[in-house]
């Protein structure tokens, strides 16, 4: 029997020990080891920190700069920490926004339910249906038939308890409502601070949605000839989100469907009776001089003469995206609803405004919505024309609708 040499025996024993010591690393170890790799070192030997068996400690060492780290390692970890902080901050802000919106929506719904309950279902966009009927139209571009119920919804008279509202907040001035929409809100006015209700709700709490409010120029004593109101365009439908629905939808067979369903707005001021206003115009306005003309529609709460009123109406109708059957005359009371609108991008501060006039004594509140006309030649401003490659070719509105002209 041949005996192995001692050296050969020792080598075989050492190989066997190595085989026994081999252990497949866990996924956790592999993941944490990646944090220890320096992808910028390009083979350079760097200082190594003893690895802890605790995965949280290993993660902390991998992310937080250590004294033993090289300058490249420290810079990389600082960038990683900054990215993590930005991500956490963004998520926290998003959660805060969603929470605030939910709180605000509930608060406004409770106020509306208490002071002015809706009697009509909330408006929704036309439904797509499979089998077209007599009241069906086909939308261009989509080819899908759409059911469009164009029955106008009349505003029910408001009967607001302003004594109670004022006891809750003395800044209360009026109430506005478009039946069948979420626009069913109190109107506020903060003396000396027009921007307060951009960021505060009815109870004085900070809120992303703010409240609907009026300019300080309005007196709310019955002498105003134009009530100018502001409100945010909220994605959840609150504030003046529904004001944007008056923008013609040119992708629909009925671009003016929303107007045809909601041609009037109800308003009641503190100390006054419920009033109905007929919508007659809507336009886009520029707010930055570097992009062209800034149409100043936010200062006209009163008119010094017939000529000033007439010129104001002519200027509005030049810009209106639609024409209605509503006539106007000097002495009419106007209602202006203004909200943010970004058809050209967030960097171009534009506004969408809807104008209505009060129903005169003895006049019917009904509107013939069948004759509304889409105006494709509305007056815009320089930058808008550059974007769409056209220009204004002059007014096409029938000035006989301005009875005092």
Keywords:
alpha+beta; 28% helix; three-stranded antiparallel beta sheet; 8 helices; 13 strands; eight-stranded mixed β-barrel; Sortase, Chain: A; 405 residues
Task: Describe the model.
The protein is of the alpha+beta class and 405 residues long. The chain is 28% helix and 16% strand. It has helices at residues 6-21, 27-36, 55-63, 71-115, 162-168, 257-261, 306-319, 382-388; strands spanning 127-128, 136-138, 145-147, 172-177, 184-188, 212-214, 226-230, 264-269, 275-286, 322-323, 334-341, 350-358, 373-374. The chain has an eight-stranded mixed barrel. Helix 2 (27-36) packs parallel to helix 3. The longest helix is centred in the N-terminal third of the chain and has 45 residues, at 71-115.
Quick synopsis:
The chain is built from eight helices and 13 strands. The protein has helices spanning 6-21, 27-36, 55-63, 71-115, 162-168, 257-261, 306-319, 382-388; strands at 127-128, 136-138, 145-147, 172-177, 184-188, 212-214, 226-230, 264-269, 275-286, 322-323, 334-341, 350-358, 373-374. The chain is globular.
